[in-house]
Amino acid sequence: MIAFRNVGKWYGDYHALRDVSAEVGRGEVVVVCGPSGSGKSTLIRTVNRLEEIGKGSIEFDGQDVHSARLDLNRFRSQVGFVFQSFNLFPHLSVLENIVLAPVTVLKKKPGEAAERAKHLLQRVGLAGKADAYPGQLSGGQQQRVAIARALAMDPPAMLFDEPTSALDPEMVGEVLQVMKSLARDGMTMMCVTHEMNFAREVADRVWFMDHGAIVETGTPDSFFNHPRSERARKFLLDLRSH
Ligand code: ADP
Questions:
Q1: How close is the Cα of 135 to the center of ligand 1, in Å?
Q2: Ligand 1 atom having least distance to the Cα of 14
Q3: Whose C-alpha lies nearest to ligand 1, atom 14?
Q4: Which residues of the chain carry a pLDDT beneath 50?
Q5: Which of 39, 43, 58, 190 has its CA 20 to 30 A from that of 115?
Q6: What does the chain look like in DSSP terms, one character per residue?
């Protein structure tokens, strides 16, 4: 579903991604972890071309993401991307936030889009909040709306870039719960997160990054219990000592 082939990226002289080759299979959940500054966010942002790459190629659901011919706005609207910040439109209601792209980009009928939005709100546990405004919701609720909004475009895969990092601790669980249920339903997911319990319980594979490279990949069991590289062992030790 998502394939990185020899991807390199530079910020000026800084080598941010080093020859990354890896794949996320259909229905697979991959958690990308690694120390701060290792390139996790840069990597996931290259998938919907929020970051350009300097070398290599990326395929998303059969499309060459960095091709000059790609219709970028249309492509981006169909990649389910959930950020650390929720980026909901404050002047639109929850329902309006969710139906906006399906109606304007996919040309869905407003009534149909609204029905689907209500169904998605139910799915993220916010059935009663269709008419609320983002400012009236907690951070955890806003992030669940952001997930429903992404799902409304029927994305072939969902990308999460630290979706719980901006939340108060008591709200992290409700967002992870929604992500878990998506994973159970077979959604293809690539997640950058520091939530290692989520990685243990939900990931099919863990990618460990350091200094812009994927140093190690494996099942959660092999990564957490038998890390092969010195750098992964140090990362896990540092986590445990926190
Ligand atoms: P992570 O998500 O693992 O914390 P990032 O992908 O955010 O790492 O960053 C990787 C490295 O690239 C860091 O050293 C960061 O300072 C650098 N970096 C990220 N974005 C930019 C940018 N826009 N310009 C220059 N350097 C950047």
A1: 30
A2: 26
A3: 37
A4: none
A5: 190
A6: -EEEEEEEEEETTEEEEEEEEEEE-TT-EEEEE-STTSSHHHHHHHHTTSS--SEEEEEETTEETT-TT--HHHHHHHSEEE-SS----TTS-HHHHHHHHHHHTS---HHHHHHHHHHHHHHTT-GGGTT--GGGS-HHHHHHHHHHHHHTT--SEEEEESTTTTS-HHHHHHHHHHHHHHHHTT-EEEEE-S-HHHHHHH-SEEEEEETTEEEEEE-HHHHHHS--SHHHHHHHHHHHH-
